[in-house]
Amino acid sequence: MTPTLKWQGKIYLFFISSISLIVFITGDGFSTPSLKDWVFVYFLVSAVLLLSYFSVHLPPKDNSFSMDSAIYLAVMFLYGISLALKVLLISILVEFLYKRKMAWWKHLFNFSMYSLMIAGAFYSFLLFGGQIGEIKTDHLFPYMISLLVYFCVNISLIFMFFVFLERVYKGAFNFGVLLEAMVSYCVTLILSLVLAILLDKEQYFGLFLFIVLVIILSVVFKKFINLYELVSNRANKDHLTGLYNHGFFKETLKEQFSDCKMLKQPLTLAFLDLDDFKKYNDRNGHLQGDRLLTFFGKLLQQAVEGTNFTAARYGGEEFAILMPNTTKEDAHAFLNRLRKEVNDTYFDGVEHIPYRCLSFSCGIAEMEKDMYESNELIHRADQALYYAKAQGKNNVQLYDKHNMCLDEIKFKQDLEALEQQVKFFLSKDVYTYRHSKRVFKYAVEFGSCLDELTDHERQTLILGALIHDIGKIEVPRDILNKQGKLEKHEWEIVKKHVTWGREIIAAEKRFDDLLPLIELHHERYDGKGYPYGLKGEEIPKLARILCIIDSFDAMTTERPYQRTKTFEEAVEEIDRCAGTQFDPAYAAKFIAFVRERYLPLAEMQQLN
């Protein structure tokens, strides 16, 4: 919650406060109990405040729940709603007095919320046959319903508050979070029944025993959580720098990537590499090199302190910073400022390396809407880092696809390497080999017509087109060469060629850019494709282009079990499926390309 309320929040607060006041009046919350009852009320209030302080902590970190609800429920089951509401009111008033820094409306919201929760639980308890004044252990159904209503009212009121503030938190639709909350409430129900039985038998002593029990649980679980965090830190932290290690960082990146993509929030990744670290090591020794890494790790920890950034040692002298809710421009400003601070920070021995100061090179990449997995972000940040080092080190570079073009020699080497892999089909499935070569040819020609593609994207499209069906090498020969229509189970095997192809090509890191084309060229624009059912611009741009080229060649190539379409018929089919199977913008451009480049040749062949 925020310190001040927007007008929507004020309306919502007024609304539930008014309802809770009505509940309080109708629940006889203003009735005056006897002196003996007041003493008991003050004991219960003390118990509520004490148990609020001694909350029960559970892993993971910051997951805890208070047992104050157990007191409200137990009092309600034994003495009715009136006494429960009195305990609630006095507890909130006392909290208001010693938590003066907490905004007044938060106290009011808590009181209103708990009032409605107690009222909902009480009336549902009565509705389903519960009886106030005694605990019937042979008829637990009303107690279960009562707790369920208590839980649902709690979740609904909090969720609606965030809706009114237009700040729906990212875990709101997370089933795991709701399940954890439900487990906590189940524990609350069990302990509320334990407390009710104790109060029924030995009123004050029973309350004392319950408080002692919960405090012991709180202390034990706090020790447990501390041990959990210690073991977790050992598993997730790099022992030398104190930063998170490679494995933890990769897992965090996957989670943040998924969250930010779903919530349409920016996510930026930066890779940092200490300049001339090998030269420093060679001159000063490995022990001093380790001290430098430790020193630099502390600088990164200080830099990200107070932010939601995650800093990690990625490997060797390479570090990574994950920046959720941060644009690449903001990340560039942050890291360039850090670079200058690092340059001005002396460390023993740096005067003997080329820049005569501590420095790093940095590459930054921001998640784009057509990315489908976190490895793409890693690859782009890595390319930007490589470019930063190529620019003379000690600088920060944003990923720019215009700067990432392969040189012609490397492109030809990659092309030859992939060509050798495709030739494996010559002995197994000549059709797939020829199909790959034709799709490659179309990609070369069509790619040159797309002005919006960078040179790097054209090269990636060409290489991906050549190798896109490499996964079919794993498909049994009798299925690949079957004359008739495939059975359902056979078709399921064929569909796996995209994931098999990805596994084959992923073995060489230099081909990482091709992975989306290999794995996703059978995704459909309407979301009905495979393997993931991605939709629209969730599918990477080059995979959408390759899907059109691949389908066009499949339609215009003779196969035993299907009639071959003419180029004109294939063009009409692509036009018909634009917006469903194919990206409509690139479908229109491909149709124009075929009409200009191939249809005149096809018409001349028909005349001859």
Provide key terms for this protein.
single chain, 608 residues, alpha+beta, 5-stranded mixed β-sheet
Question: What would you note in describing this structure?
Answer:
The protein has helices at 7-26, 35-53, 68-79, 81-98, 104-127, 141-164, 175-201, 203-236, 246-263, 277-284, 286-304, 328-343, 374-390, 408-422, 430-449, 455-467, 477-480, 488-495, 497-505, 515-520, 541-555, 567-576, 584-597, 599-607, and strands at 56-58, 63-65, 267-274, 310-315, 318-324, 360-366, 396-398. By secondary structure, the protein is of the alpha+beta class. Helix content is 62%, strand content 6%. α1 (7-26) crosses α5 (104-127). Strands 4-5-3-6-7 form a five-stranded mixed β-sheet, sandwiched between helices. It has a two-stranded antiparallel sheet with strand order 1-2. The protein is globular, with a radius of gyration of 33 Å.
Overall structural class, as computed from helix and strand content, comes to alpha+beta
Strand proportion? 5-15%
| Unreliable stretches | 166-176
The overall strand count is 7
Average pLDDT value? 85
Helix content: 55-70%
In short:
The chain is α+β, with helices and mostly antiparallel strands and 608 residues long. It is built from 24 helices and 7 strands. Helix content is 62%, strand content 6%.
Topology summary:
Elements: H1 7-26, H2 35-53, E1 56-58, E2 63-65, H3 68-79, H4 81-98, H5 104-127, H6 141-164, H7 175-201, H8 203-236, H9 246-263, E3 267-274, H10 277-284, H11 286-304, E4 310-315, E5 318-324, H12 328-343, E6 360-366, H13 374-390, E7 396-398, H14 408-422, H15 430-449, H16 455-467, H17 477-480, H18 488-495, H19 497-505, H20 515-520, H21 541-555, H22 567-576, H23 584-597, H24 599-607
Parallel strand pairs: 6-7
Antiparallel strand pairs: 1-2, 3-5, 3-6, 4-5
Pfam family, one: GGDEF
Transmembrane segments: 12-31, 38-58, 70-96, 108-128, 140-165, 177-198, 204-225
Protein name: HD family phosphohydrolase
